[in-house]
Amino acid sequence: MSRGIIIFAQNNEYINYAEQACACAGYARRSLSLFDEICLITNTETLAPNETLINEYFDRVIISDNFQPENIRLFKDTTDKLEYAPFKNMSRSEVYKLSPYDETLVIDADYFIMNDILDQVWNSDNDVMINSKYRDISGRHQENIEYIDNFSIPMYWATVFYFKKSDFAENLFTLISHIKYNYKYYYYLYNCSGNLYRNDFAFSMALHILNGSVAFDVPSLPINYLNNSFDLDDIYRVNSHNDVIMYCADAENVSSHILSRFKDMDLHIMNKKAIGRFIDDLLSHGEKV
Amino acid sequence: MSDITKETETSKEDLQRLEKALEFSNTMKTFNLNKNNLKVKTQNLLSHSTSGGSFTVDQSLISFMNFVVSSGKTEITLLDKNDIPVYIEDTEKFLDDISSLYFEVVNDYYNEYQKLKSSRKIEKVLEI
After folding, report:
1. How many alpha carbons fall within 13 Å on the CB side of residue A278?
2. Do B52 and A124 touch (CB under 8 A)?
């Protein structure tokens, strides 16, 4: 059975996602060993100016130039800066069709793998694995399961998920696509909040519908919690491929920060500008093809 | 006049104590955050997958497997962390694997925890 890691990246005027995807791929290659390839799914516009760098970090590139309707997101860089920019995140529903692998691990371009736990996904008996439990590394969010709404379903994080080619996975992604094209309807049905199309919401709703629209448990990844660094945090220093020191926004005063070190811990760093500031370090500590 | 001086001195003292307490509180905040993050790292690392299933490695799993092996059972079906039944065909190897993992991960946790406790100066502890 072929095994691949897939990362999506589509640039906007604000963030160079291609660079970040390369850094992410470098970390994945450094920490994991049981996969066959790391593949980037991107569009022509993103690939063209970044092709040399991308070929250094990815075994394969798949182009997906599907039209994406406007999806404007607020990007925060600690409490200092806020900026609205397009968030091109809608190709993820196509990953089942696009993936050339029997088993696929999809990770966000801002998810840095720093241990080998995710190597345990390969050869799983489960058709799909995805986590609802997460942790805020700064301790600001005390709950570790988020709900789409207080009266709605638990939210599954589409940050990292695994699937193998199977009926269940195919039906899941068919539903996710359907929800994407009829988002307004499902948005109100499930009482979603915010103006953004979120993959997390679409995945959660699709999983709920596929399981008969009743309370359900979806097999989780081998990691118990996703370690989330929200966008009020910042990076202090990147020491190595498995060692990062973060500025974590203080729960009592979010414009102040507490230092915390993360060694051998996967990190989901949502402050994209922080990643941009340290991109050279992150690229240098990762492993190339 | 001396009452005012005394009052001023006392309030300076109080201020210094307060500053010390706040500094200590900041250090404690940093210590607690890093301690919690270490704990979560350990929980995440205590994971073992085999035969298509994923197991959280803890003392009760190890004790149970010890009982299974001591009873002479060479194969068994167990519920994994997702409550899915998983067939283990070599119980002794499974016990070996999970015990080694547990000792290694918890030992690392101990060492890092000691480092964290060793100094009030956070720059020293985080090796900044």
Report:
1. 23
2. yes
Domains of chain A: 3-285 (3.90.550)
State the CB neighbour count (10 A cutoff) for residue A2: 13
Q: What is the pLDDT of residues A23-71, one digit of tens each?
A: 999 999 999 999 999 999 999 999 999 999 999 999 999 999 876 666 7
Which of B47, B113, B124 to mutate to test binding with chain A, by most A CBs within 10 Å of its CB? B47
Distance CA A177, CA A186 (A): 12
Report the distance separating Cα B49 and Cα B70, nearest Å: 22
- Minimal CA separation from A253 to chain B, in Å: 12
Q: Which of A260, A263, A266, A267 to mutate to test the interface with B (most CBs of B within 10 A)?
A: A260
Phi-psi region of A61 (alpha: psi -120 to 50; beta: other; left: phi over 0): beta
Q: Between B99 and A68, whose confidence is greater?
A: B99
Instruction: State which residue of chain B sits closest to A244, comparing Cα positions.
Output: B126
* Rounded-to-10 torsion of CA A8, A10, A16, A18: 40
Out of A221, A225, A261, closest to residue B34 by CB: A261
Candidates A88, A116, A221, A114; CA nearest to A163 is: A221
Count the Cβ atoms, other than its own, within 10 Å of residue A204. 28
ipTM over 0.85: no
Token pair of A40, please?
């980037």
Amino acid at A182: N
Non-local CB neighbours of B124 within 8 Å, separated by 6+ positions: B118
Would you tell me how many other CB atoms lie within 10 Å of the CB of residue A188?
9
Identity of the residue in A125, A137, A236 whose CB atom sits nearest the CB atom of B37: A137
